[in-house]
Amino acid sequence: MPVDYFTFFALPRKLNVNVAVLEREFYELSRKLHPDVYAQAESQEQAWSLEQSSLLNDAYRTLKDPIKRTEYLLRLEGVELEEQSKAATEKARAAGEIKKQVVPPDLLEEVFELNMQLEELRAQKKLGEDDPALIEEIGKQKLELEEKYEALSEELKRYWKEWDALSDDSSEEGRRQVRDRMVDLLNRRSYIRNLVRDVSEVLEG
Amino acid sequence: MAPDRIVGIDLGTTNSLVAFMQGESPVVIPGEDGVNLVPSVVALDERDQIIVGNAARKYLIETPERAVYSIKRLMGRGLEDIQDELKLFPFQLADDLQTGEVLRISLGKKTFTPPEISAFILRQLKRNAERFFNAPVTKAVITVPAYFNDAQRQATKDAGRIAGLEVLRLVNEPTAASLAYGLDKKQNGIVAVYDLGGGTFDVSILKLHDGIFEVVATNGDTHLGGDDIDNLLIKIAIDDILGDANLDVSRNSEVVATIRKAVIEAKIALSSESATELDIELPQGKRYQREITREQFEQLIQPIIDRTVGPCKQALKDAGLKPQQIDEVVLVGGSTRIPKVRALVEELFQRRPHTDLNPDEVVALGAAVQANILGGGSEATENMLLLDVTPLSLGIEVAGGVTDKIILRNSTVPASATQYYTTQVDGQANVAIHVLQGEREMAKDCRSLARFDLKGIPPMTAGMARIEVKFLIDANGILHVSAREQRSGKESEIEVQPSYGLTDDQVESMILDSFDYAEEDFRQRQVIEARNEAETILAALDKGKKSPAWGKLTGDEKKKIAKLEKSVIQVKAEDDYQAIRKAIDALNEGTMRLAELMMDTAVSTALKGKRMDETDMGEGSETGHPVARADFE
């Protein structure tokens, strides 16, 4: 397993990152590692530069983005968030099904009603009889969901603070709790994003 | 010994250029005719010799079946992709072309692949540079549209190889333009580059910061450019002619070529005039005349230039920026001279675009800057570094015909992704991977890049093998794949079947074939070498004139030498290397006594009595005279 991204940037595994400092570090490292600097060098050096700079770029891309950074840290902690989702998606595709998404409990009622409205709108569109009131209602729901989505980013930042406050001798239980809350939040976020996308599709379709 | 000169090359759809860094600024190297732009036109003349550039243009009209233009449109593409192109351009495909085979175009009775044709253009540029430097040129930076996919980039690299150039880097055209701009301005900020060329459209958004040129987002359309405007006008003219003169000229390639030339001239005129006239001679003594106003022109081309809006908006979105946050907009490409295009750019980005730099040359100049950086840099470029991105997402085809994206578009390159595969069947020795480029969900809507076969997997139970496959997009935007079976630690052999490209063997064989056309190269090399020798002997003679031995010559001898010297100076300026050699030999002979005299006064008598060329003076008979070993370097 190659060096992890935090180590590459000489950063501790904390979720709050000063992005301006990260960028400066990225530029400095780029000046040292980029293949252009090794254009006339031996092929071994060139191969090394290629590997190092791709690692640098992958690391920067991941750590720069708050969500990617969180997902990456969780993965380092042993939570295979994306993999789980991917594996499930592939399994469903192979079986020709749509992956069943677990609905976040606090959204159950909302989602149920929204799905009914979407069904109705789809049927209406087929007959060419869209009801403007329904479209407006759905549009409002979509805005609410988008607001919830934005609010999640703020919530995530609170968990970051909790995580960063944990010291090395914090209990495994304490770490697990914060981790689980972040996983839960990311799942919720992902769900809402997909739902908003589905709504947009029907509205524009 | 001067370090290898690396040149920057803009291999454009309509025109090509070669440039280099001269001191603090980049400069375009002109052709023999003194012109900077080399039209990307290739023709086969009556003697089956290849003609490139301005000289080839007349063939487009006189013998269009022996000429080709806009070959860039066919680079890295397959038969299925170019059906639209074939309707609009007079590309003549080889008669015996099979499906799945690499495209071949016929010129006269010969056929060539697009990389080979591009190689003829590159070779012409190489020659221009060699003539200018009076030294060989073997390394280059070549630009490509930012939106070019892997196959198109590979084809460009192949063209370089076939032309005898080591391509040190492929640079994206908008990024190259920003280098030329950044070198000029030396300011930090966010720059948008709007590049509308002959055949391709690119828009890139970059962050310039203390010499770092970081591409944040890029987008474009590889089927959109000035050619489309031309084709629209041609079609209108042909329809007009059918209506007015009841003449269907659509199949008459000479007339169509003439119409094309006329509409291009009209298009250019309308950038500065409010109206112009088309006046074309037709068969049967007829004539097509029509006035076009700028207003009419603008109305006609609106749908074409509107197609640039989508990519611009997407690039801004991907960059997470609003138009107001862009500090500067740079225009690239001849088509950006059209006033309507400038107006559109001004509206899109809410500011006047920067038009100081020559839109035809800026890409080549930027390539020269990058060439300089790769060569170790100079004072002007010492802080400069390019960080570019891959324009298209890289994906793998998975179950259900879906694309699984593993490297997203606008990722800074070099970039990598690692995937794990396993076997489905006991003892399975191969795993097939289908790699795609594009943003769509379904594999069939994306661009097939290549099929990789992982071979030599050690026999295992199904599902036991764990094959780690690493996908790496290098600084040129080209994909490399390596694989390792983790349990056995065995490196998997990867067989690549490029979907639209040439195999290494094919390129090698084309390099050999290309020597048939290298007669011109050979001849020029001879001229360069002969000239260098002439200079050597002339310098040596100058030294000889200052030595005491010169005074020992008779008046007649001096006169004779002066005459021979004049002769060398004269032929040196011309192109006949055999004549130059002859003149050098004559001067050598004529100055033998001078050399002897110089030897006498300088060296011990032990050497007396030996012929000059038997004396071991270090360099051997090439330099001949001891006086030729003068210390100039």
Characterization of the model:
The complex is a heterodimer of chains A (205) and B (633). By secondary structure, chain A is an all-alpha fold. Chain A folds into 2 domains: 5-64, Helix Hairpins (Orthogonal Bundle), CATH 1.10.287; 101-204. In chain A, 75% of the residues lie in helices and 0% in strands. Chain A contains 8 helices and no strands. The longest helix of chain A is centred in the C-terminal third of the chain and has 34 residues, at 132-165. Chain A is extended. Chain B is of the alpha+beta class. In chain B, strands 1, 2, 3, 4, 10 and 11 form a 6-stranded mixed sheet that branches. A 5-stranded mixed sheet of chain B has the order 17-12-13-14-18, sandwiched between helices. In chain B, helix 6 (226-245) packs across helix 7 (253-269). Mean pLDDT of chain B is 87; it is low at 604-633. The chains are: A mainly alpha (205), B alpha+beta (633). Chain A binds chain B through residues 27, 30-31, 34-37, 39-40, 50, 53-55, 57-58, 60-61, 86, 90, 93-94, 96, and chain B through 168-169, 209-210, 212, 370, 373-376, 385-387, 398-400, 402, 404, 411-416, 472-475.
Distance between the termini of chain B: 7 Å
The radius of gyration of chain A is 22 Å
Outline the biggest β-sheet of chain A.
none
**Element pattern of chain A in H and E:** HHHHHHHH
List the domain count of chain A as a whole number: 2
Give the helix level of chain A as a range of percent: over 70%
Q: How many individual domains of chain B? A: 4
Total beta-strand segments of chain B = 29
Low-confidence stretches of chain A: none
The CATH homologous superfamily of the largest domain in chain B is called ATPase, nucleotide binding domain
Give the largest interface. Answer: A-B, 22 and 28 residues
DSSP strand count of chain A? 0
Largest sheet of chain B: 6 strands, mixed
Mean pLDDT of chain A: 86
Unreliable sequence segments of chain B: 604-633
Kindly estimate the percentage of residues of chain B that lie in beta strands according to DSSP: 25-35%
Gross geometry of chain A: extended
**CATH architecture identity of the largest domain in chain B:** 2-Layer Sandwich
Average pLDDT, all residues of chain B = 87
Q: CATH top level of the largest domain in chain B?
A: Alpha Beta
Globally, the shape of chain B reads globular
